[in-house]
User: Fold this.
Amino acid sequence: MSNVGIVIVSHSPLVAEGTADMVRQMVGDEVPLAWCGGNGHGGLGTNVEAIMGAIDKAWSEAGVAILVDLGGAETNSEMAVEMIGEPRAQKIIVCNAPIVEGAVMAATEASGGASLREVVATAHELSPS
Amino acid sequence: MTALNLSRLITAAADAIAAHAEELTALDQAIGDGDHGLNMKRGFEAVRAETEAYSAKPLPEALKAIGTKLVMTVGGASGPLFGTLFMALGKEISTDPDHANLTAAFGKAIEAVAARGKSQVGQKTMLDVLQPVHDALAVGKTASELADIADAAAEATVPMKALRGRASFLGDRSIGHMDAGARSTALLVRTVAQIIGDKA
Assistant:
């Protein structure tokens, strides 16, 4: 698919999946979408391997925007991008935006064929500067 | 460094983390999300399980592999932070490091951790232990002095206000508690100092 992909990373699988449901309702299958949540051991948290898997699943040559909740999700997402490495890493951006609103807005922007830069800018508009 | 030493280091580090897992979790429960002890223990047990494989590698490769394993198994924000410390150390260290190389590599690894956590010294994090230990190493302090400096540095995070990580949400209420990451870093410094000190 040529549209930018969206990855949702929450400490809670329920939050991640619920956010993905809301995105799907907005944009249908127009946007590659994947989510992950939980520490991989049944508890709350995020883990790098699952994030790398979600990026693969939502991969688009147009790039991937990642929406995260709390700090560890951001740190783990940045680690995942680094481990994926170039040339793909330069097409993956971790957004600074609220996870639910950011994911819905970014996906809506992406569904219209916007560039990764535009998708990320739309999500960032939701953050207090 | 011989294979025997690396294997001793891994065993001692995993033992130290396991022995203090409950203490680390209690520290994290006070001002974080309460999973630090369990997370660190899981990560270091995963490293321990592959001691033989790491010991067979040259030191830089072994450290990078240990870092990657920690990233994948510790979870939380600690996984990438401690993982980055070891991965960056592996990138900079030589196969048979002298004091100058060790000091330089350790300094680079601390910079990598700071970049990963978007943090700096004074924000109530593991950096508040790493940096004074590095500075003491640079001026030639002994292994046992380094271990004491690490403990004192972890202790010195108690009155600090957290500016990074989950504890920062608490603002002033983070004051009065030791940072769990600083404590686990001090534990690891003491462990390494003891093993390397034994050798010297």
About this structure: Residues 3-199 of chain B form a domain with the Serine Threonine Protein Phosphatase 5, Tetratricopeptide repeat fold (CATH 1.25.40.340). Chain B has a mean pLDDT of 93.
